[in-house]
Amino acid sequence: MTFAQLFCIAAVWLLGGFIHGVTSIGGGMIAMPVVTFLTTPRDAILISCLTGFIIPLALAIIYRRHILWREVLFLTLGCIPGIPAGLALLTTVSGPALLFGVGVMLIFFVAWQYLSRKVRPSLPYHPLTAFIAGVAGAFLTSCTSLGGPVLAVYAAFRGWEKEKALASTSMFFNFLNVGLIFGQWQAGLYSESLISAVSVSLPSAVLGVLISIPVVRRMPQQAFRKLLLGMILLSGLVLLYRSVM
Question: What confidence tens digit (pLDDT) does each residue in 38-54 have?
């Protein structure tokens, strides 16, 4: 991987970390589609998985008192079938198919953000429901690195408060990331160039989060969020276009 590619990846993930710090929307939704222009779709997904693990770890520590351990347990059990299924898809499907899947997920996320305010909590707790949500989240994270929207939908229909949602979904992703990274390593998906990319994307993402801290209080959140959703929608449409052209 060239110096120019590494520099661009670092810059993109600096922006991704900043966006996450300002809006709490995963910076990978912006960074990962851009990285597909610098490397293969599969490597872009792997870089996103390896770079994004630090944020849920921090959130789980900060909000540890709000973790709903019973639901996290059954969500995490869903990783057992979800991770292998997602890795199998990641290692077998073509680049255009991966781009199409990621594009669909981004468009779904934008649509969900606009519709979620109308959702009323109507989903009672049941271990099987949590398990299915865990399977879906683990599967989509493994093959696209974008399992967050599924957990956001589950949390909304369960009626979780913000702190409980942040704590419980973050704890789920911590367990998921451990299994996912181990599975990716066993599958031989980590190349020297990939590790080089992560070595610049990970500290850049952390730096982006730190830079966002003094900006948060001064920036009009609602306007920035709308602009960001427009950017995510555009990213999704571009990926769909690239997948068929």
Answer: 999 899 999 998 998 88
* Cα distance between residue 78 and residue 133, in whole Å: 7
Of the listed ranges 5-9, 13-17, 72-76, the least confidently predicted one is: 13-17
Q: In this structure, how many other beta carbons lie within 10 angstroms of the beta carbon of residue 152?
A: 19
**Whether 9 contacts 197, CB under 8 Å:** yes
- What's the CA gap between 112 and 119, in Å, rounded? 10
Report the distance separating Cα 4 and Cα 128, nearest Å. Answer: 48
Residue 126 to residues 76, 77, 158, 217, Cα–Cα distance (Å) = 14, 14, 10, 39
* Alpha-carbon distance values, 107 to 24, 216, 218 (Å): 18, 26, 29
Q: Is the pLDDT of residue 147 over 90?
A: no
Res. 219 pLDDT band, cuts 50 70 90:
low
- 188 Rama class: left (phi>0) / alpha (psi -120 to 50) / beta: left
**pLDDT (tens digit per residue) in 169-189:** 889 999 999 999 999 999 899
Q: Give the C-alpha separation, 118 to 115, whole Å.
A: 6
**Cα separation, 217 vs 238, whole angstroms:** 32
d(CA 137, CA 133): 6
Whether residue 113 contacts residue 58, with contact meaning beta carbons closer than 8 Å, is answered with no
